[in-house]
Amino acid sequence: MNRKVWHISLIPACLLVLPTPAFAIQLHTGNAGIIAHQIGHLFFLFAMVALMFTINSQGLIRQKGWRQIQYGALFFIFWNLDTLVAHFLDNQIEVVRIETLSISKMAIVTQSDSQLLAVIYYFLKMDHLWCVPAMIFLFMGLDNLLKAQRQGGKGAGQ
Amino acid sequence: MTANLPILLVDVLGSVIMVVLGVLSLFKAKSLRDLDPDNVVFLYLIWICAGFTIFAVSRSFSHILRQFLVLTGSGDIWSSIGPFTGAVNTITFMLVGTVTLFFNQSWRINEKVLSAKQKHQETSAKLLELNQTLEHKVVERTEMLTSSEHKARRIFEHSLDTIVVTDPAFVIAEINQAGVELTGYRKSDILDNQMGLKDFLAVRSEREKILGLLETDEYILNEEADFLRADQSCVRVLITGGVDYGAFGCGKTFHFIIKNINDKKQMEQQIAQADKLAALGELSAGVAHEINNPLGIILGYTQLMLKQPGDHEEDLKTIEKHVKNCKIVVSDLLTFARKGSTKMQSIDVCKVVDDVINFLANHSDFRNVEVIPPQPCTRPLTVFGNEQELAQVIINLMINACHAVEKKGCILVVTGQDDQDQILITIKDNGTGIRKKDFSRIFDPFFTTKPVGQGTGLGLSVGYGIIRRHGGDITVRNRKDKGAAFTISLPKARSPQDTLDREET
Predict the structure, then answer these.
(1) A33 located within any domain
(2) Which residues of A touch B71 (CB under 8 A)?
C-alpha cells in the first residue's frame, strides 16, 4: 500500500522537474469582447423570440397581462436588433465614431462621410426608445396579471 | 456637428426609467408570488424580473457613468472601465435570456402542479363527501340501532311474561321484571348465585324432559311445567325457548319465554268441576224424581200401618225413620239439581249470618266451640237471593267447620265487601285443614271424609249449587297456620230499584 502511494507521488515531482510547452491557453484578441457581447445580444434576442412563441403556443395571448409581456418581448427584440447594428457599426467594423464636443454638441464621424449612415447611427444611439417601452409593457403585463390573480380569475399562472 | 442633447436625455432618462421599471416589475412579481406561493410561473417571473432589474441597474450605471466621464473630459477613464461595464452588461442580459428560455418548462411544470393540485382537490372533495355520507349513514344507523335496542329493551322490561336469557348451561344471564316477580327472588340473587333454569323446575320428570329436548332439538315449544318459586310454592307455567348462536362475536345463548298459566289452569279445573257437577245434577234430579214417588208411597203406607197398633210397630217406626232420611237425601239432591222452589228477594247478609250463629249457639255440637262472629256491619251488605237457602249453606259450612275442629276449636266468621262489589262471607276454622288430594273432589256429590253413616256427602255440593244459582262462588283454601277457610262470594245488590226489578223478573 505504502509502495503504491510512493509511486503516485512521483508523478507531480516528474512534471515539475521535466517541464514541456502545454499550449493549452489560447490568446484572445481585442475583438473577442465585442463578439461575446454581440452573441449575448443575439442570445437575448433569441430568448425573447422564444418567449413570444411560448406565450402564443400556450394560448396566453388571450390574456391581457401575458399579451403585454409579449409586447415587451417584441420591443426587446427591436432593442437587441438596434444594439446589434449599432455595435456592429462602431465597435466591430468601426465605420462610425462619435466625438463629444460639448454637452449639447457632438460629431458623428463616418468612414466615408456618409450622411445617411450618420443619421441612422444617430437614431440607433437612442436605443432606450426600444428598451424603455419594453420595460413599461413588462410592468403593465405584471400589473394586469396581479389584478387578474386578485380577482381570482385565470389571468396569471393558471 | 450634431445635437447631442436628445441622445444624452434619452440615455440618462431612459436609464433611470429602466431601473425604476425594473424595481417596480420585481415588486409586482413578488406580489404575485405572495398571492400563490406554490405557483412555479410566478417564481419564474420573479427570476426574470430580478434579471431585468440587474440588467437595468448595470446598464444604466454604465451609461450614466460614460456620459458623465465623457462630458467631464475624462474619456480616458471611461476607456479603461468601459470593457468591465460592457462585460457586466453582457452577463446580465445573457442571464435574462437564459432565464427566459426556461419559461416553457416553467409553464409545463406549473401546469402539472396545477393539474395535480386540482386532482388533489377533487379527491379531497370526494373524500370529504364520502366522509360526510359515511358520517350521515353512521348517525342514521346508530339512531336506528338505538331505536331498535330501545324497543327490544322495552319489550323485555315491560313484558308481562317472563323472559329469560341463559348461557349454554342454562344458567340465567338476564331476566326481566316479570320473571323476578314470578320467581320471588331478587334479580341480584338470581344472577349472583348463578341460578339456572333447572333450579326452578319442580318436577324431576318435567325437568328431564325439557332439558332433554333442549339438548337434542335446541328448542322447546309450549312445554308445561311446575315452576318452583322462592316460597317453595309451585305455579303452572308454559315454557317456550330456543337457542341463539349470537352475532358479532357473541356467544351461544338460550332465550325462554315463560308464561304463568296457573290462573288459567285453575279456571279450567273449575269449569271442569262445574261441568261435572252439572252432569251429576241432571243425573241426581232424574234419580231423585224416580225415588221420591216410591218413597212417598212407602212412607204413606208405613204411617197408615202405624195408626193400627200391632206387633211390628217398632219395625214400622224404623222404616218410617229411614224413609224420612231418604226423603231428606232426595230433597237435597233435588235442591242441588235446582228442582226446588225458591223465592228470591233482597237479603241482608249480616242478619242472615247473625241468625245462623244464634241458631247454632244452642246446638249441642257447638257447646265447646268458640264461634267468633263478624264485626257489626257499618253498612248493609245486601244481596239478591233466597234467605233460607243462603242460611242453609252457611249452616252447612259451620257444621263442617265444627266437625273439622272436632267440636272443640275455634270458628271465625268474617263478612265484608271487596273491590269488585262482591259480598264475602268467610268461615275459618283451626282444624285439620283439607288434604291436597281432596281439593278437586270436595264439591262432588256424595264425597265425604266423615265416617260412614255420619254424612251424606251432599252438603257442600248442594251449597255449591245454591251459591252458583245466586251468581256467586265458593272457594276453599287451607290457612297458613292451621285449618281451612271457605269463602262465599255473592254479587252485591246494586240498588233498591235494581233489586225490585230483579224481583219482578
Answers:
(1) no
(2) 100, 103
Which chain A residues have a beta carbon less than 8 Å from that of B91?
A: 40
Which residue on chain B is closest to A45 by alpha carbon? B97
Residue in chain B lying closest to A31 (CA): B83
**Options 1.10.3470, 1.10.287, 1.10.20, 3.40.50; CATH of B262-341:** 1.10.287
Superfamily of domain B342-505: Histidine kinase-like ATPase, C-terminal domain (3.30.565.10)
The answer to whether the CB atoms of A105 and B56 lie below 8 A apart is: no
B71-113: pLDDT as tens digits: 787 878 888 888 888 888 888 888 888 888 888 888 888 888 8
Q: How many CB pairs lie under 8 A apart between chains A and B?
A: 142
Asked if this assembly's ipTM is beyond 0.85, the reply is no
HEC string for chain A: CHHHHHHHHHHHHHHHHCCCCCCCCCCCCCHHHHHHHHHHHHHHHHHHHHHHHHHHHCCHHHCHHHHHHHHHHHHHHHHHHHHHHHHHHHHHCCCEEEEECCCCEEEEEECCCCHHHHHHHHHHCCCHHHHHHHHHHHHHHHHHHHHHHHCCCCCCCC
Other CB atoms within 10 A of residue B211 CB: 16
Of the partner residues B28, B29, B100, the one whose CB lies closest to the CB of residue A51: B100
pLDDT in tens, B424-441: 999 999 888 888 888 878
Domain B159-260 has CATH 2.40.50.140: no
Are the beta carbons of B35 and A131 separated by less than 8 Å? no
- H helix runs in B337-451, sequence order: 349-361, 387-404
